[in-house]
Amino acid sequence: MRIRQTPGECIFTVFNTLLMVFLMVIMLYPFYYVLMASFSMPSDMAAYRGILLWPQGFQAESYKLVFQNSDILTGYANTIFYVIVGTVLSVLFTVMIGYVLSRKNLMLKKPLMILIVVTMFFGGGMIPTYLMMSQIGLMGTRAAVILPGLIGTTNVIIMRTAFQGVPDSLEESARIDGANDITILWKIMVPLIMPTVSVMILFYGVGRWNSWFDAMLYLRDRSKFPLQLILREILVYSGTDDMLISWGEFNGQDMSEIIKYTTIIVSTVPIICVYPFLQKHFVKGVMIGAIKG
Description:
Layout: H1 7-38, H2 42-47, H3 61-68, H4 70-101, H5 109-118, H6 126-135, H7 143-146, H8 153-164, H9 168-176, H10 181-192, H11 194-210, H12 213-218, H13 227-237, H14 241-244, H15 252-291
Helix pairs in contact: 1-15, 3-15, 4-8, 4-11, 4-13, 8-15, 11-15, 13-15
């Protein structure tokens, strides 16, 4: 049975709906523009002005050129490796640290939390971190891309709060049955906080997919570059010359812009496709970490 709304509530609902639609449009249109531009003919796109609702002309050769670029294919493979390995390790360590910090009988619990929280506000800086990575022999290795951002302090706090929300009676019952901490963590606690774990997978996965700065600092071998670093070279330094060699009938400068649009789509679509599978856990997982401090 629907509850009748007052005139003021109806006005608020209409205004709120229009506002959400407006925000959705202004957030989605840039991506839609890039998608339509990636299928447009370079000469038609260069002459077009205004809101772009459909491709100007049509071509799909830009996608063929992008996927023929060995750097992009190698970057794809590297990024998938960094995302999978980095996300698995990050979630694993975040879960373990969050579980330990949520235990009421943990010694030096408050000093440990203070030390962890301090890292949210203070860091060693880029140059000291670079020197440290060099001295411990990680320069030029894949570990240099994965290890520096392995654990996020905010994610640890969210995970700790999620563990604290699990009733103590479940742990006590498990201990009576002879379960140890490892069994309690992986067979009781983690299944109960899967929405939060899903949010951690989303946070770490998106962060790894978009990461390029650490790779730019610590890697010199192009065979280890992630996709986003290759994309940065194409967008910032216009590194499209190799792809333009096989497209002789169009003006190189115009085609360069189309290739940039295409590369953005190619590098963005995979992570967008992953989000719907985790979206249903997103709100619940974040709210768990917002209920208790």
